[in-house]
Specification:
Elongation Factor Tu (Ef-tu), domain 3; mainly beta
Length: about 120
């Protein structure tokens, strides 16, 4: 039995070279506590999917072309076989990168409910 170790991220069909430590929060309808009188009950509430990673800038990368403000398809492939896809993903944080230290580029996407392939 293998445990999750590596996630591969694909943004609009191109692989995003990323460091270990990426995070994926699967969105969808979740329970939210609603309190009334001396009781509490669940109520459905939508939660966004959130995907974050630290990418590595390589020679020839066009950062503004690859990581702009438009929507696109995001796929996350786990080394344990799971594949999640979001056709409606978009980058939510300002693109920030660091010189030295391997050209690290922090990326965060938001999206709706994923499809598990």
């Amino acid at each position: 039995m293998a445990a999750l170790g590596i996630i591969d991220i694909f943004w609009n069909g191109s692989k995003v070279p990323n460091e270990p430590g990426g995070t994926v929060t699967l969105g969808g309808v979740r329970n939210k506590a609603v309190m009334f009188s001396r009781s509490v009950a669940p109520a459905g509430a939508m939660m966004e999917s959130k995907i974050a990673c630290t990418a590595v800038i390589q020679t020839g990368d066009r950062i503004t072309d690859n990581y702009g403000t438009g929507q696109g398809e995001l796929q996350v492939q786990c080394d344990t076989g799971q594949i999640f896809a979001w056709p409606d993903a978009f980058i939510v944080e300002a693109v920030e990168f660091t010189a030295g230290e391997g050209g690290k580029l922090k990326l965060t996407w938001s999206a709706g409910i994923p499809t598990e392939l």
